[in-house]
Amino acid sequence: MTGTMMDITIEDHGVKKMLGRIQQRTHNLTPAMNIIGQIVRTSIVRNFEKEGRPQKWKAHSETTEKRRGKGASILREESHLMNSIHPKAYKDRAVIGTNRVYAAVHQFGAKKGSFGAFSITQQVKAHVRNVRGVRQNVKAHKRTRDMKLPWGDIPARPFMMVQTEDWDEIRESLADYLIEGKR
Length: 183
Hints:
The chain is of the alpha+beta class. It contains 6 helices and 6 strands, in the order ααααββαββββα. Strand 4 (about 125-130) and strand 5 form a beta hairpin.
Protein backbone atom coordinates (compact mmCIF):
# COMPACT_ATOMS: atom_id res chain seq x y z
CA MET A 1 0.00 0.00 0.00
CA THR A 2 1.37 3.42 -0.88
CA GLY A 3 0.85 6.58 1.08
CA THR A 4 1.18 7.40 4.72
CA MET A 5 0.34 4.85 7.40
CA MET A 6 0.20 5.16 11.16
CA ASP A 7 0.32 2.27 13.61
CA ILE A 8 -1.79 3.07 16.68
CA THR A 9 -1.08 1.29 19.94
CA ILE A 10 -3.62 1.75 22.72
CA GLU A 11 -1.88 2.44 26.01
CA ASP A 12 -4.95 3.66 27.90
CA HIS A 13 -5.96 0.69 30.04
CA GLY A 14 -9.55 1.98 30.33
CA VAL A 15 -9.95 1.82 26.56
CA LYS A 16 -8.35 -1.64 26.45
CA LYS A 17 -10.75 -2.88 29.13
CA MET A 18 -13.73 -1.39 27.27
CA LEU A 19 -12.70 -3.07 24.01
CA GLY A 20 -12.19 -6.33 25.87
CA ARG A 21 -15.71 -6.13 27.36
CA ILE A 22 -17.22 -5.32 23.96
CA GLN A 23 -15.38 -8.27 22.45
CA GLN A 24 -16.70 -10.56 25.22
CA ARG A 25 -20.28 -9.35 24.76
CA THR A 26 -20.22 -10.05 21.01
CA HIS A 27 -19.48 -13.77 21.54
CA ASN A 28 -22.95 -14.38 22.93
CA LEU A 29 -25.53 -11.76 21.99
CA THR A 30 -28.42 -13.48 23.82
CA PRO A 31 -28.90 -10.55 26.24
CA ALA A 32 -28.90 -8.08 23.32
CA MET A 33 -31.31 -10.28 21.34
CA ASN A 34 -33.59 -10.42 24.38
CA ILE A 35 -33.67 -6.60 24.41
CA ILE A 36 -34.49 -6.52 20.68
CA GLY A 37 -37.22 -9.15 21.16
CA GLN A 38 -38.84 -7.11 23.93
CA ILE A 39 -38.72 -3.91 21.85
CA VAL A 40 -40.36 -5.66 18.89
CA ARG A 41 -42.98 -7.34 21.10
CA THR A 42 -43.92 -3.95 22.58
CA SER A 43 -44.20 -2.55 19.06
CA ILE A 44 -46.46 -5.44 17.98
CA VAL A 45 -48.73 -4.85 20.98
CA ARG A 46 -48.94 -1.18 19.93
CA ASN A 47 -49.97 -2.39 16.44
CA PHE A 48 -52.95 -4.13 18.08
CA GLU A 49 -53.78 -1.14 20.28
CA LYS A 50 -53.76 1.26 17.30
CA GLU A 51 -55.57 -1.33 15.11
CA GLY A 52 -52.85 -1.15 12.50
CA ARG A 53 -49.69 0.89 12.01
CA PRO A 54 -48.61 2.69 9.94
CA GLN A 55 -51.90 2.04 8.10
CA LYS A 56 -55.16 1.27 9.89
CA TRP A 57 -56.52 -2.22 9.36
CA LYS A 58 -59.60 -2.73 7.22
CA ALA A 59 -62.84 -2.40 9.19
CA HIS A 60 -65.00 -5.39 10.07
CA SER A 61 -67.50 -6.69 7.55
CA GLU A 62 -71.19 -5.96 8.09
CA THR A 63 -71.71 -9.54 9.24
CA THR A 64 -68.96 -9.26 11.87
CA GLU A 65 -70.27 -5.87 13.00
CA LYS A 66 -73.76 -7.35 13.49
CA ARG A 67 -72.27 -10.14 15.61
CA ARG A 68 -69.79 -8.03 17.65
CA GLY A 69 -71.43 -4.62 17.55
CA LYS A 70 -70.64 -1.55 15.50
CA GLY A 71 -67.18 -0.15 16.25
CA ALA A 72 -65.96 -3.29 18.07
CA SER A 73 -62.19 -3.47 18.30
CA ILE A 74 -60.37 -5.38 15.58
CA LEU A 75 -58.33 -8.45 16.63
CA ARG A 76 -58.60 -7.53 20.32
CA GLU A 77 -61.94 -9.03 21.34
CA GLU A 78 -60.40 -11.17 24.05
CA SER A 79 -56.74 -10.31 23.40
CA HIS A 80 -55.81 -13.98 22.92
CA LEU A 81 -53.77 -13.27 19.81
CA MET A 82 -52.14 -10.10 21.14
CA ASN A 83 -51.24 -11.78 24.45
CA SER A 84 -49.78 -14.81 22.68
CA ILE A 85 -46.92 -12.81 21.10
CA HIS A 86 -43.64 -13.84 22.74
CA PRO A 87 -39.99 -13.26 21.89
CA LYS A 88 -37.25 -15.87 22.15
CA ALA A 89 -33.60 -14.81 22.29
CA TYR A 90 -30.68 -16.80 20.90
CA LYS A 91 -27.00 -15.94 20.79
CA ASP A 92 -27.26 -14.70 17.21
CA ARG A 93 -30.93 -13.78 16.63
CA ALA A 94 -34.29 -12.91 18.15
CA VAL A 95 -37.47 -14.70 17.10
CA ILE A 96 -40.92 -13.27 17.80
CA GLY A 97 -44.00 -15.36 17.22
CA THR A 98 -47.29 -16.79 18.41
CA ASN A 99 -48.65 -20.28 18.95
CA ARG A 100 -52.12 -19.32 17.68
CA VAL A 101 -52.88 -21.32 14.54
CA TYR A 102 -55.15 -18.58 13.16
CA ALA A 103 -52.47 -15.87 13.36
CA ALA A 104 -51.33 -16.32 9.76
CA VAL A 105 -54.88 -15.81 8.47
CA HIS A 106 -55.03 -12.42 10.19
CA GLN A 107 -51.48 -11.48 9.17
CA PHE A 108 -51.87 -12.38 5.48
CA GLY A 109 -55.64 -12.60 4.96
CA ALA A 110 -57.65 -15.41 3.35
CA LYS A 111 -60.19 -15.68 0.54
CA LYS A 112 -63.60 -17.27 1.09
CA GLY A 113 -63.27 -21.04 0.79
CA SER A 114 -59.47 -21.00 0.59
CA PHE A 115 -59.31 -23.71 3.29
CA GLY A 116 -61.88 -25.94 1.64
CA ALA A 117 -65.23 -26.90 3.11
CA PHE A 118 -66.69 -29.06 5.80
CA SER A 119 -70.10 -30.63 6.32
CA ILE A 120 -72.38 -29.79 9.20
CA THR A 121 -75.08 -32.25 10.18
CA GLN A 122 -77.81 -30.86 12.39
CA GLN A 123 -80.62 -32.65 14.16
CA VAL A 124 -83.78 -30.66 13.40
CA LYS A 125 -86.60 -31.09 15.94
CA ALA A 126 -90.21 -31.47 14.88
CA HIS A 127 -91.82 -28.06 14.49
CA VAL A 128 -94.50 -26.08 12.69
CA ARG A 129 -93.48 -23.89 9.77
CA ASN A 130 -95.53 -21.05 8.32
CA VAL A 131 -95.20 -20.98 4.52
CA ARG A 132 -97.19 -18.19 2.77
CA GLY A 133 -99.79 -18.22 5.51
CA VAL A 134 -100.15 -22.00 5.56
CA ARG A 135 -99.01 -23.87 8.65
CA GLN A 136 -97.03 -27.03 7.90
CA ASN A 137 -95.87 -29.71 10.30
CA VAL A 138 -92.20 -30.61 9.87
CA LYS A 139 -91.02 -33.99 11.15
CA ALA A 140 -87.77 -34.35 13.05
CA HIS A 141 -84.89 -35.03 10.68
CA LYS A 142 -81.18 -34.60 10.08
CA ARG A 143 -79.95 -31.87 7.77
CA THR A 144 -76.48 -31.73 6.22
CA ARG A 145 -74.94 -28.73 4.51
CA ASP A 146 -71.47 -27.80 3.30
CA MET A 147 -69.75 -24.72 4.72
CA LYS A 148 -66.76 -23.01 3.13
CA LEU A 149 -63.80 -22.03 5.29
CA PRO A 150 -63.50 -19.19 5.90
CA TRP A 151 -67.15 -18.19 5.38
CA GLY A 152 -66.12 -14.89 3.79
CA ASP A 153 -62.99 -13.04 2.77
CA ILE A 154 -60.74 -12.08 5.67
CA PRO A 155 -58.59 -9.06 4.86
CA ALA A 156 -54.90 -9.03 5.77
CA ARG A 157 -54.31 -7.17 9.02
CA PRO A 158 -50.54 -7.30 9.44
CA PHE A 159 -49.67 -7.10 13.12
CA MET A 160 -46.22 -8.75 13.11
CA MET A 161 -44.38 -5.66 11.89
CA VAL A 162 -41.33 -3.75 13.05
CA GLN A 163 -42.06 -0.05 12.65
CA THR A 164 -39.52 2.42 11.28
CA GLU A 165 -39.33 4.25 14.62
CA ASP A 166 -38.40 0.99 16.39
CA TRP A 167 -35.02 0.81 14.67
CA ASP A 168 -33.69 3.86 16.54
CA GLU A 169 -34.59 2.25 19.87
CA ILE A 170 -33.05 -1.06 18.77
CA ARG A 171 -29.78 0.65 17.73
CA GLU A 172 -29.65 2.67 20.96
CA SER A 173 -30.28 -0.40 23.12
CA LEU A 174 -27.62 -2.39 21.25
CA ALA A 175 -25.08 0.41 21.75
CA ASP A 176 -25.95 0.58 25.47
CA TYR A 177 -25.48 -3.18 25.77
CA LEU A 178 -22.24 -3.43 23.76
CA ILE A 179 -20.52 -0.36 25.19
CA GLU A 180 -21.87 -0.16 28.73
CA GLY A 181 -23.28 -3.63 29.37
CA LYS A 182 -26.79 -2.29 30.09
CA ARG A 183 -29.54 -4.86 29.76
